[in-house]
Amino acid sequence: MLYVLCKRESSLEMIELALSIFHKIDAPDTYSCSNMIVGLCKLGRLESALEIFDRMNRIGVLPTRSAVNLLIGELCLMSGKEGSVEKVRVRNTRRPYTILVPNMGGNSGAIQPAVQVFWAVCSSGLLPSAFVVVKLMSELCRLGNTVEAVRVLRIVEERKLTSVQEGYSVVINALCECCRVEEASDLFGRMLSCGLKPKLVVYNSVISMLCKFGKLKDATRVFEIMNKNRCLPDGLTYTALIHSHGEVRNWKVSYDLLMEMLGLGWIPHFHTFNLVESLLREHGQLDLCVKLERKLENQKLQKLCKGGELDAAYEKARSMLEKGIPLSAYARDIFQQVFQKCGKIKIARQLLEKTERVQEPEEINKT
């Protein structure tokens, strides 16, 4: 009866009828209580659902996993909504009005019951699904309660749940955002010692945090671990390291990192390129400045070709020729292939002939 009222025919009228029937039951069992929790959660009546959960605790009845998942999930969702905006009444005008403003502090009113439900079922040997546990940790981290999030993560680790990898990622990222260097570093080390392989976003968070606090050796070591674990870095990884090395005027490492970044197809930010170029000029490495510019321009051309931007690619190639920058063998090939596919090979070849004329004097000078 309660199953039909709460799940199949869920509505305000039906849930009120179900509640009246439920309150007449002297010793409700797992399924009658769980059906009520599910029905109440679906209609947003979380306070009533929590009352039933508390009653279950008192009489020693354990809810079903699906009921726990829905209850904790809805509480986390409500917490997120509470923390997003807040109503503020503006009264110092002729006509007072209400506006919505970002609630930066975050209202943790709904997250506390979610945590209590989690620990209550956990002590009874029942754990929510991996998805719900990660949602709980994410909301705790969003509210800045990383201590509680770490406690939840410990349970996930002890029970060997499938969410342990994602749980580590969520908590480490939150600790890095809060600049909790020691805690984030310790948790990152623990993640590695457990045999887990961090994702790119975790490596980037840790490296960026370490670079921000001038811990360049530690950041470099994390970068080496990243390469060892075959996790390809992206532009954010290289940018953080390049700027960190640039601050200590280490032109060689900054140059090597930028060339490696370009080799992987990442286009650096204008300020990043200027930083390395100024370091090279400062140390009299003008030949490397020329090499770096060629690498960058060829990489930009390749990106335009791969993106199918023929007009922009043609203008880029023409601009390079005017500056005396030759096309690399790979850039020339991909440029020709793209124009050939579009039936514009003649235009490409005319431009490539100019490229060869630019390259020939350079080859003679080298000999």
Q: Secondary-structure map with pairings?
A:
Layout: H1 2-8, H2 12-23, H3 30-42, H4 46-59, H5 65-84, E1 85-90, E2 97-102, H6 111-123, H7 130-142, H8 146-158, H9 164-177, H10 181-193, H11 200-212, H12 216-228, H13 235-247, H14 251-263, H15 270-282, H16 286-306, H17 310-322, H18 329-341, H19 345-366
Antiparallel strand pairs: 1-2
Compact overview of the structure:
By secondary structure, the protein is mostly helical.
Describe the protein's architecture and organization:
The chain has a domain at 305-367. It has helices at residues 2-8, 12-23, 30-42, 46-59, 65-84, 111-123, 130-142, 146-158, 164-177, 181-193, 200-212, 216-228, 235-247, 251-263, 270-282, 286-306, 310-322, 329-341, 345-366; strands at 85-90, 97-102. Helix content is 72%, strand content 3%. It is mostly helical and 367 residues long. The protein has a two-stranded antiparallel ribbon. PPR repeats lie at residues 29-63, 164-198, 199-233, 234-268.
Radius of gyration: 30 Å
Largest sheet: 2 strands, antiparallel
The side-by-side strand order for the widest beta sheet comes to: 1-2
Estimate the helix proportion, in percent.
over 70%
Multimeric state = single chain
Pfam families: PPR, PPR_2
Organism: Glycine max
Family: Belongs to the PPR family. P subfamily.
Protein name: Pentacotripeptide-repeat region of PRORP domain-containing protein
